[in-house]
Amino acid sequence: MRRLLATLPVVVLVALFVFLLLRLAPGDPAAVIAGEHATSIDIERIRAMLGLDRPLHEQFLLWAGTLLKGDLGNSIMSNMPIAKLIGQRIEPTLSIAALTMFVSVLIALPMGIAAAWGTRTWVDRTTMVFAILGFSLPVFLVGYALIYVFAIKLGWFPVQGYRPLAQGIGPWLRGLVLPTVALSFTYVALLARTTRASMLEVLAEDYIRTAQAKGVHTRGLLFKHAFSNAAVPVVTVVGIGVTLLISGVVITETVFNIPGLGRLTVDAILSRDYPIIQALILIFAGVYVVLNLVIDLIYVFLDPRIEY
Q1: 23, 43, 68: which is the final residue of a domain?
Q2: Is residue 74 part of a domain?
Q3: Phi, psi (5° rounding) for residue 89?
Q4: Three-class SS of residue 152?
Q5: SS3 string of 92-131?
Q6: Which of 36, 101, 171, 280 has the lowest tally of Cβ within 10 angstroms?
Q7: Are residues 119 and 237 in the same domain?
Q8: Are 193 and 108 in contact (CB under 8 A)?
Q9: Which residue in 82, 84, 177, 197 sits closest to 131, CA to CA?
Q10: 247 and 182 within one domain
Q11: Model confidence over 191-235: pLDDT tens digits?
């Protein structure tokens, strides 16, 4: 409960930052939305519609009040409720994020453990080279390379687009393979390198050498004794990696033309749709805060010595 209550001030500060981000930015949002050929009357009408003609504290209280009611407002360009727009776009984003997380953990943890156990071998060197490439290559470059090879040249996967899960698991999964691989590239490198470093530190402990002397099997030594104690830093990186997923989804959905929240963010920025930008920033920040809270609570189960 204390950890849960500690997140409330963070949420309030995030909401305040999101509100001030667009209000205090250089330029008049109403003038930007109205366009170059708008008259002063048109600009004032838009300012009144957005509530920008009111004092700043009144604008914040009004905006916060609508948020507490679950109302994210309406889009300026389409005049549709923002909650409805997000509901239409959330499935592709959740699909990419969930598959990326699953694939990354499935690949990175065994890779990092194997690299730590076989340090200074070809497995370790291959893992480190992959980690360096994963950090060095941007997501959009990996995405375009995958499209050129596996979609254009080989024709195994579609170039762009998204097929909803309701149309079948096969078409849904086929359209997500390339975006997931592109987004997983950096995430796998981060997790594998962290797992390797954490496992190397644990494998140097005395109790590991004692277990080896007692004849404990390698699998039990690595997973039951070593990885259980090395899991806390790995779980921390999993939480921090959510920021990579959030930023990566924006780029990936743009490259593969997937109609998710990332693409909605780009479209809202290009059209200066400030209510949508505010709502999406608030949602992404809220997801990050909640996941960090969950990870803080997982620490206690991983290591009973941790107390809050």
Answers
A1: 68
A2: no
A3: -105, -5
A4: helix
A5: HHHHHHHHHHHHHHHHHHHHHHHHHHCCCCHHHHHHHHHH
A6: 36
A7: yes
A8: no
A9: 197
A10: yes
A11: 888 888 887 777 777 776 777 777 776 666 776 667 767 777 777
Do 171 and 108 belong to one domain?
Answer: yes
Strands (E), 187-278: none
Per-residue pLDDT at 290: 81
CA angle in degrees (0–180, nearest 5) for 143-144-150? 85
Reported as a single tens digit per residue, the pLDDT across 29-74 is 666 666 667 777 777 777 777 777 777 777 778 777 777 777 777 7
Residues, the chain = 308
Q: 55-61: long-range contacts (C-beta < 8 A, 24 or more apart)? A: 56/23, 59/19, 59/23, 60/16, 60/19
The verdict on 126 and 184 lying in the same domain is yes
Query: In this structure, are 34 and 109 located in the same domain?
Result: no
User: Tokens 């849904």 sit at which residue?
Assistant: 172
Number of H helices, E strands in the chain: 13, 0
The beta-carbon contacts of 137-142 under 8 Å, at least 24 apart in sequence, are: 137/185, 137/186, 138/251, 139/182, 139/183, 139/185, 139/186, 139/248, 139/251, 139/252, 139/255, 140/251, 140/254, 140/255, 142/181, 142/182, 142/185
Pick left, alpha or beta for residue 272 (phi over 0 → left; psi -120 to 50 → alpha; otherwise beta). left
Tally Cβ neighbours within 10 Å of residue 197. Answer: 16
User: Cα separation of 95 and 93, whole Å?
Assistant: 5
Phi-psi label, residue 215: left if phi above 0, alpha if psi -120 to 50, beta otherwise: left
Burial of 307: CB neighbours in 10 Å, binned 0-12, 13-18, 19+: exposed
- At residue 27 the predicted structure's pLDDT band, cuts being 50, 70 and 90, is low
- CA–CA distances in Å: residue 272 to residues 38, 137, 179, 199, 241: 15, 30, 27, 47, 28
Q: Is 174 exposed, middle or buried (0-12, 13-18, 19+ CB in 10 A)?
A: middle
Orientation of helix 274-302 relative to helix 261-270, angle to 10°: 150
